């Protein structure tokens, strides 16, 4: 990416709720599932709106509308305007507000988008806000929500949000953004998010859990790529699975299974074919609509569990076999959620006493996390000037990470691949003929 590109700050401020949080709601407890999330991880998502210049909107009008509507939204999402308390398991709803940074990038939105597939980490430094403060994330001045509005020479904008994962999962972020947009459009429906996680899944004494550690400065760089799986190619993948006996393969199953098989192949080739470590694939599952009785879709917090798929890296794994492994794992965890949600909470409590990362190191395994944001209504986020042409997800997690999200047409999938440390693994991955038969680096 052009090294001369910079984000020129116009203003930095904190947006406070439009009405004060009642004293009775001052301290918001986090749920058991929230407790399981590191406070140092952010969920980040950017919305590209390249065609505003042809509308009636002026730059200052956009800024004022976003700020005023965010203030009204935070009155409903009052924990989002607060700060994590020192124990990290409760929010002080003190109305300190969300950080809002506004600035310009001297290029066209399309130029940034072209860099997504190969220079995404540098691009993220431009379009995602950084904290106005230094210091640990648990400090009481640290915002839980960061917003950045970037304006471009073409008249388009990119609006990015970064939300502390301890207070929200991807579904919650989607709900928050759509409610914010609805308030900006002045719809008649006033959002009423369900902030009931702690009453459903009460937190436990924080002293029972290991204190989360901030990310290490020397943990190494990540290499990131954005792969495009268009609807026609996904159809071809499904046909391959069907011809091999897989019944009704889904988009998620065929894309994630293909990428996992490519990760295994790349890891082996990068180590001259001698790579015999086990691969473990972790898959989060949104259980809002699975448990009995189901939870409202606008339940805000972390409402997901996970299942694991494991494969020996020295084994040749065919696509249908991996699809079936993924399907079996998801079917099992969905059955657990339906029949006995307490089993899920017990598993979560056990994971605190024996963290997954420690288990991975013990078994000398490679770990990849796959999070599917498909079908979350991110492309419905319309503040009054139309829906986004691209929704770009990111995370600050230190894991090897794969995020799947819809294309604008709702049928294709973008796969955001983040691999730790090794350029070699990525270069081998990009030379995989099987992968390149279905995916492109064209953003």
From TrEMBL:
<keyword id="KW-0963">Cytoplasm</keyword>
<dbReference type="Pfam" id="PF02458">
    <property type="entry name" value="Transferase"/>
</dbReference>
<dbReference type="GO" id="GO:0016746">
    <property type="term" value="F:acyltransferase activity"/>
</dbReference>
<comment type="pathway">
    <text>Alkaloid biosynthesis.</text>
</comment>
<dbReference type="InterPro" id="IPR023213">
    <property type="entry name" value="CAT-like_dom_sf"/>
</dbReference>
<protein>
    <submittedName>
        <fullName>Diaboline synthase-like</fullName>
    </submittedName>
</protein>
<keyword id="KW-0808">Transferase</keyword>
<comment type="subunit">
    <text>Monomer.</text>
</comment>
<keyword id="KW-0012">Acyltransferase</keyword>
<dbReference type="GO" id="GO:0005737">
    <property type="term" value="C:cytoplasm"/>
</dbReference>
<dbReference type="GO" id="GO:0009820">
    <property type="term" value="P:alkaloid metabolic process"/>
</dbReference>
<comment type="similarity">
    <text>Belongs to the plant acyltransferase family.</text>
</comment>
<keyword id="KW-0017">Alkaloid metabolism</keyword>
């Amino acid at each position: 990416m052009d090294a001369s590109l910079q984000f020129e700050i116009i203003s930095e401020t904190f947006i406070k709720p439009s009405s004060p949080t009642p004293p009775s709601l001052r301290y918001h407890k986090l749920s058991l599932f929230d407790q399981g999330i590191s406070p140092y991880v952010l969920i980040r998502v950017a919305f590209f709106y390249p065609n505003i210049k042809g509308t009636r909107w002026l730059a200052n009008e956009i800024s004022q509308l976003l700020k005023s509507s965010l203030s009204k939204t935070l009155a409903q999402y009052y924990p989002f305007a607060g700060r994590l308390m020192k124990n990290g398991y409760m929010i002080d709803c003190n109305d300190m507000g969300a950080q809002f940074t506004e600035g310009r990038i001297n290029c066209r939105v399309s130029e940034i988008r072209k860099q997504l597939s190969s220079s995404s980490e540098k691009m993220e430094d431009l379009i995602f806000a950084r904290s106005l403060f230094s210091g640990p994330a648990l400090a009481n001045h640290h915002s839980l929500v960061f917003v950045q509005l970037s304006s471009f020479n073409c008249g388009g904008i990119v609006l990015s949000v970064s939300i502390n994962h301890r207070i929200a999962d991807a579904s919650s972020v989607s709900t928050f953004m759509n409610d914010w947009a609805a308030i900006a459009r002045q719809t008649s429906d006033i959002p009423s998010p369900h902030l009931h996680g702690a009453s459903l899944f009460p937190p436990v004494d924080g002293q029972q859990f290991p204190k989360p550690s901030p990310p290490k400065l020397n943990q190494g760089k990540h290499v990131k790529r954005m792969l495009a799986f268009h609807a026609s190619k996904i159809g071809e993948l499904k046909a391959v699975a069907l011809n091999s006996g897989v019944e009704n393969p889904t988009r998620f199953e065929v894309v994630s299974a293909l990428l996992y098989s490519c990760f295994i192949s790349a890891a082996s080739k990068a180590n001259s074919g001698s790579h015999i470590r086990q691969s473990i694939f972790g898959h989060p599952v949104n259980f809002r609509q699975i448990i009995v009785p189901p939870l409202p879709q606008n339940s805000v917090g972390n409402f997901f569990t996970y299942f694991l798929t494991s494969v020996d890296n020295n084994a040749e794994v065919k696509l249908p076999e991996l699809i079936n492994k993924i399907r079996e794992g998801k079917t099992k965890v969905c059955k657990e959620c339906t029949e006995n949600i307490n089993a899920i909470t017990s598993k979560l409590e056990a994971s605190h006493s024996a963290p997954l990362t420690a288990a991975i190191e013990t078994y000398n395994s490679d770990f990849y996390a796959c999070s599917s944001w498909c079908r979350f209504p991110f492309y419905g986020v319309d503040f009054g000037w139309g829906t986004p042409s691209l929704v770009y997800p990111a995370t600050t997690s230190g894991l090897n990470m794969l995020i799947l999200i819809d294309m604008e047409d709702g049928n294709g999938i973008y796969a955001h691949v983040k691999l730790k440390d090794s350029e070699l693994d990525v270069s081998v991955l990009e030379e995989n003929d099987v992968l390149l038969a279905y995916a492109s680096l064209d953003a």
